[in-house]
Write a structure and sequence with these properties.
Structural class: mainly alpha
Largest sheet: none
Helix content: over 70%
Oligomer: single chain
Number of domains: 2
Shape: rod-shaped
Number of helices: 6
């Protein structure tokens, strides 16, 4: 995370601009001095951190993975109920749900 993007550099430059300090303001000031007020230089440390973030794999669970985890959970619950009541169709459905879920999690 690189932090919140703000315009604080622009505001500091504007507040310390000689024309602003002298009180000589008009609507064209920013347009005339935009090159001096807005800087494009980014510290090397920030660029290196951004590059490192791009190389790191995402640890977020996608919707497909959440669905797969849910299938495994439901499958395990259904398997327990099927075994408890000796319900073979429930056991078969549980195995399909677990296999489908495990395959989705590995994806």
């Amino acid at each position: 995370m690189l932090g919140v993007r703000t315009n604080i550099v622009f505001l500091r430059a504007l507040c310390t601009d000689p024309e602003v300090v002298a009180g000589e303001l008009d609507i064209g000031l920013v347009g005339r001095r935009v090159g001096e007020l807005v800087r494009d230089d980014v510290p090397v440390e920030v660029l290196a951190s951004a590059a490192q973030d791009l190389r790191m794999p995402s640890r977020r669970l996608t919707a497909v993975k959440w669905l797969a985890v849910g299938c495994v959970a439901v499958g395990v619950w259904l398997l327990a109920i099927g075994i408890l009541y000796t319900d073979w169709p429930a056991i078969a459905l549980a195995i399909v749900a677990i296999v489908f879920g495990v395959a989705g999690v590995r994806r």
